[in-house]
Write a structure and sequence with these properties.
alpha+beta, Alpha-Beta Plaits, 3 domains, six-stranded antiparallel sheet, four-stranded antiparallel sheet, 14 helices, globular
Length: 459
């Protein structure tokens, strides 16, 4: 499925992921890209003698194209460059690939695919390419375009996404958490609708359904089931029934190609052997038992299976989630059914995000490049490594009502605002922040301000 003639995808390059997720502050962390330094040095050495050739700029200089060939002329094209990522579909009869969606800093339209569609594509890819393990980097990249809209999808998608990003080398704690949650738009109130005449799917933003209105068992139909700290926003999608250029029919045909590839696994002679079916069902009921996984591999080999994708997914060193996905494929089970049964009784809530600040007192005429400027990179590194946030920009000199001045370091905190602020306060204290330094966070619709010592309020 993945074109082997092309250079290997740049999945081991943290800068590639930072660009795809528009994370300009990842580069502030010292040593964050150490994993790719050797590769970058070698690339520089290899190109030193070719500076005057016509091929100075490789195809990855302005964008890094990843391809998923679904067969019969249907190819998904993912282009990750310096300023975002885009998704296109090449299909028979089209002179140029059709744009499905993109995400950048200007006019983003990333909501292009249903979660079930990217799940299907990744499963098909995993069968055709040993390096396309699922969950893995292809899911991480496609998740930019397959939003999680409902609780049922979230129960399966979130464990898979967390593992996919956990496997990527060189990312910090913030990246692994925030990137995995980027496509979780449950707090947006988006639902997928199917046209009865064409059977095509498209997203609509119009509040919450009765099923989604109360994950905790309370609330009225149509009410927002999430608190105000969950990240909300607006739907931006080209997948609209009134959008004549969106390739609805071609996309549906591409998904049928991927679905057929997954179904073809059950046509293999070894896949239908009674001993294999028994071993599969036994393993599916108790996937944590290493002996049952080993017994399944033995049954497959005895039945004549030599498929490296199948055997690799069930190998002793493969993750439990990867093995469960392969077991679903071999059983012909509903996608996600085993993952949901063994990993998620219910989906965790969407990621919470908080706007916060650190205020460092200064004289109004003090140099701009002072204590706060020197401290910001350290705050950024510590927050990101802990997976609690990042520093967005600054510092900025601000005036106060009493006529004094302060340097404002904006902070973007995620998940646990209290742990994030405590970490910031510790860094400030250890760095010798001047008297009067304070921190501030907006949570639950209220602003909390504290100095570097006083206890933070409980929720």
């Amino acid at each position: 499925m993945i074109e082997t003639e092309r250079p290997r995808p740049p999945f081991s390059d943290p800068e590639f992921w930072a660009a795809c997720f528009l994370d300009e502050y990842a580069g502030d962390v010292p040593g964050a890209y150490a994993a790719s330094e050797d590769e970058d040095s070698k690339a520089t050495e290899d190109t030193e003698d070719t500076e005057d050739t016509e091929d100075d700029e490789s195809e990855y200089d302005d964008g890094r194209m990843i391809t998923c060939d679904l067969g019969a002329g249907y190819v998904l094209l993912l282009d990750g460059g310096r300023y975002g990522v885009s998704l296109q579909l090449a299909h028979p009869g089209a002179q140029e690939p059709a744009e499905l969606g993109w995400d950048d800093l200007a006019h983003w339209h990333p909501h292009a695919l249903r979660w079930s569609e990217i799940d299907l594509v990744c499963r098909a890819a995993a069968l055709d390419d040993v390096d396309a393990a699922y969950p893995g980097p292809y899911l991480a990249l496609l998740s930019r375009f397959g939003p999680i809209c409902g609780e049922a999808d979230a129960a399966v998608a979130i464990p898979l996404l967390r593992e996919a990003f956990a496997q990527l080398p060189g990312l910090d704690g913030y990246q692994r958490t925030a990137y995995a949650a980027r496509g979780d738009i449950r707090a947006f109130g988006v639902q997928w609708k199917q046209d009865h005449e064409t059977a095509w799917w498209y997203p609509e933003q119009g509040g919450f359904s009765e099923d989604d209105a109360s994950p905790g068992g309370e609330g009225e139909p149509g009410a927002d089931p999430y608190d105000g700290d969950c990240v909300a926003g607006d739907l931006y999608s080209m997948r609209d029934p009134d959008e004549s250029e969106f390739p609805f029919a071609a996309l549906a045909a591409a998904m049928e190609r991927a679905r057929a590839r997954c179904a073809a696994l059950l046509d293999q002679p070894w896949a239908i052997q009674p001993a294999v079916r028994t071993a599969l069902e036994t393993f599916a009921a108790q996937p944590t038992a290493a002996r049952l996984r080993a017994a399944l591999v033995d049954a497959l080999r005895t039945a004549g299976c030599t498929d490296p994708a199948v055997l690799g997914a069930l190998a002793a060193d493969a993750s439990e989630l990867r093995a469960l996905v392969m077991a679903e494929l071999l059983l012909g089970a509903e996608p996600g059914s085993l993952v949901r049964a063994h990993y998620a009784v219910e989906a965790p809530p969407p990621m919470r995000a908080y706007s916060a600040h650190a205020f460092v007192p200064v004289e109004s005429n003090a140099p701009r490049a002072g204590f706060a400027s020197r401290l910001r990179p350290q705050l950024n590194a510590v927050l990101r490594e802990a997976g609690l946030g990042t520093t967005s920009h600054g510092p900025a000199r601000v005036g106060r009502r009493d006529g004094s001045s302060a340097d404002d370091i904006p902070l973007d905190l995620i998940e646990d605002w209290r742990a994030g602020l405590e970490l910031v306060r510790r860094v400030l204290r250890e760095a010798g922040a001047p008297e009067g330094t304070s921190v501030q966070v907006r949570r639950h619709g209220e602003t909390v301000t504290a100095d570097l010592i006083q206890p933070l309020p409980r929720d």
